[in-house]
Fold these 4 entries.
Entry 1:
Amino acid sequence: MRTSNFGASPRIKSRPEQCELHGEYQRTLIESFDDKHRVTGCPRCRFDAIHGTDEAARAAAVESKQWEAVNAALFATGIAARFRQCSLDNYRTPLAGQKAALDECRAYVDQFQENYDAGRCLLLLGNFGNGKTHLGCAVLKAVVRQYGATALYVPAADIIAAIKSSFGRDSAVTEQAIFEELASVDLLLIDEIGAQGGTEFERQALHTIIDARYRNMFPTIVTSNLPSAELAAYIGDRALDRLRENGGLAVIFDWDSARGGEV
């Protein structure tokens, strides 16, 4: 299995235990992405339950297996611990603009199969502290859960840092491997574009990723504190055109920052 440069895996603690039917097995405690950690029992017992005739036991075993798969996929998004609890349901909307932003993101999830087929992107732009990252991560989690999509959250600064680190003589990661990972997931969230120095190197790196996803018709979510005109100057007109092509949506966050309170 390929190691991700940006995603993660749940921590697992194991210890040997005895099953009355199958002998020794490894009892595991699996870290949960956004819920209570889980303990798994004998894997052969679960296999027998999945293929058995006891419907209650089968349903529990199937749910356990599905939870492990979804939990692993959520960790693979690389969403930082601070944002793991973010969801569309807990984004607060006391202002009309916040409700409109939430409605746009819900619609993007509800129509994700169509959006995915069209390679349709989502831009969350505007004032800092208004929950752009919250909503972006919430969309990622929703498409993983509802559609089984692969998704990845990466701050733009981390992309630039990873590429620069790959130039080191002793680096185990190549620049190509970084670009391939970012270009290949079903949905990529590039967070906080424009918070960096705005160098030609940064512009070219981000354009390369956006262009590769555009050519492969993979949708991308971008968050930025920059308005559209400044974002175009930062990443280049061509990159912005690719993000807006084929009905790419731009949601504008133009109310005062809510940072310091929950959004």
Note: Residues 55-76 form the longest helix (22 residues).
Entry 2:
Amino acid sequence: MLENIFKGIFDSASITVIPAGTFLLCVAVALLVGLCIAFTASRRSRVSHSFLVTLAALPALSCVTIMMVNGNVGAGVATAGAFSLVRFRSAPGSAKEIALIFLSMVSGLIVGMGYLAYAVLFTAILCILFLATGILDPDVKGLRKTLRVTVPEDLEYNGAFDGVMNLYCKKWKLEQVKTSNMGALFKLQYALTLRDNAKEKEFIDQLRTRNGNLEIALAPAETTDSEL
């Protein structure tokens, strides 16, 4: 009786019905894999809550899709066509975020094909890889900063701070210049990566000696990338 409940109304005698227990096991493994991927993303990237939910749910969605196709070529083509009609209106993300989405999809596909152990092994290897490479990311250590420096109008700001920047920063770039106080002041904005967070105050003190002790602001980097 239970088998008849989960049998499709269009199924024929040649089609194997997936047992309910097997279905639940695959979905549970897919959700577990998705949670591991979402946890990895949250540890090494600044991502939104909705993106983490997507990473957690995507393997289960892919898994169920593959199980429902169940070797039917016609259903597989129809499914591919349906997915091709979907227009994702999410903002474009970084290469790392796109890779995480593909990881979620591939893991779900492996689970849907019935290779549960391979799915867990593959996900574990890729998550370890993401965690290991994340150590090299300047954002993890808080070294990437946005610097705003106010200078008087009579100061030639081009090259005025090059020596200090080269001493305390791995890399830096002047991103914006704007006037303030009826043109009496200039406000400069830099994107930079510090060499050492412990020398942050020393870095600011050196800048103060060159801008006439006017306002200086050093904050975590502002990202211009669209958020997924």
Note: The two ends are 45 Å apart (CA to CA).
Entry 3:
Amino acid sequence: MTGARVYVALGSNLGDRRAHLALARERLAALPGTTLLASSAIEETAPLGGRAQPPYLNQMVVLETTLAPRALLDACQRIEELAGRRRGERWESRTLDLDLVRYDGVRQEEPGLTLPHPALGDRPFWQAELDELARMGW
């Protein structure tokens, strides 16, 4: 398969956090035209946004996919819903959060989808996970 190399950030701070990340990896790998190539280690991080809430488990995965960016984002949101995610206020706790961080070298800005992710430079744990994947050859 020849497709785009995509980095997706996984996060969870409600319920069985490890199980939510495992579900995300499994469902991402099962998407049409998609292969899960590698995963970073899982790390615990403090929540963003200044709200009092439980810590997050975070992980970065790299995919190869033939899905277009919007189709992949839609699929990610369906996976979040499968894990019980309900969208409400920004920065609130969630069972699962999937963010498209990079999609090959694509630069795109449209409602609800900006590539690369606009917060990439503001989240040191994302950079650490990307660095780990780079050390693995991804």
Note: The domain at 4-135 is CATH 3.30.70.560 (Alpha-Beta Plaits).
Entry 4:
Amino acid sequence: MLGSSTKDIASDRASPKQKGHDRWGQRGSAAITFGSRMEFSDIYLSYGNVAAVRGVSFVLEPGEIVCLLGPSGCGKTSLLRLAAGAEQPDKGTVMLDDRIVASDNVFVPPEKRNVGLMFQDFALFPHLNILDNVTFGLQDLDKKAARAEALIALHRVGLADYGNKYPNELSGGEQQRVALARTIVPRPSIVLMDEPFSGLDQRLRDSVRQETQTLLKETRASAMIVTHDPHEAMGIADRILLMRDGQIIQSGSPSELYNHPHDLQVARFFCDFTEVPGVIKNGELQSALGTFKLEDQVADGDALMLIRPHAIIASPSKKRKLTGKVLQSRFLGEITELQVQFQELDEVLIRASTKQLPAPGDVLEFSVDNDLVLIIASDGSHTHIKQ
């Protein structure tokens, strides 16, 4: 594959939705590698008296994109550094395919692991032009072959014409794409990315994340991405590992974590709920919004009714009607955000389509989408409202 010709990509066309400097290269033109399997077994890592990682075990499968998600200080970057070879565990083993690359008495350096690491600040060399930045990691190739490979990577990220420019001449989004090209050009079997989109403005973030996901799937590399943003993790990951205090609290697909959170803190991490206290008795939840039958048998006692912002709809169903008074109405472009009062509940957050533009003081009838309401019992078990 190192013999790929730049002629093959000379006719690259950008997506019709992309214009100007936002253009990426033709999808499907990235060089292919073979993703590796990385296994973490009972990993511990401390910095002095601070335990950064505690008993973590998981497997990154070949070609899989995994996001390490959690707040600052939860241990996700430490895990990335362990994968890269920047740290050695105090206890436990890290395996790459069928060999141990790290334990308390084994350590394989980063350059022997075939991993690509993309930093949060991109870490481009300011004194090198863009082409030289991308070729930097191709020391085993002669100059001509290295430049050809670098041009293929730059074509794929839409920056082949920027080879003679320097990092300070590029926008943040363009620098991010150069850093991505430099990461994939050696064809690593595992790509590691530390908060790769945090430096981009919101307009760019979604599109760059989507293109990055597509590019990673094209290369077939395994990928581990650190982020603190649940929206970002759900948008790019095949699987999310949610971390807290150095441990993995829950692992699963984005839909699994969103719809079936392990506990109340996990639920809150993924959504801005309106939380309504209630009491469960004989399979029913009694709350200020009424009495609801529950799907599953959960423990009687105090409970919380967690209502997603788009769970209450300003178009009542025939089954159940709720009358609410609009306290505030904010137009936010694609949605309108409402604060609605239902009986004694003054702070129910509702996000509705922009077709619905009620004014403060309006009294409307609403209905509840039962699928979007989560009930958490006092013992931590959860269920939904019965249809």
Note: Helices lie at 76-84, 130-135, 143-156, 172-184, 202-219, 230-236, 254-259, 264-270.
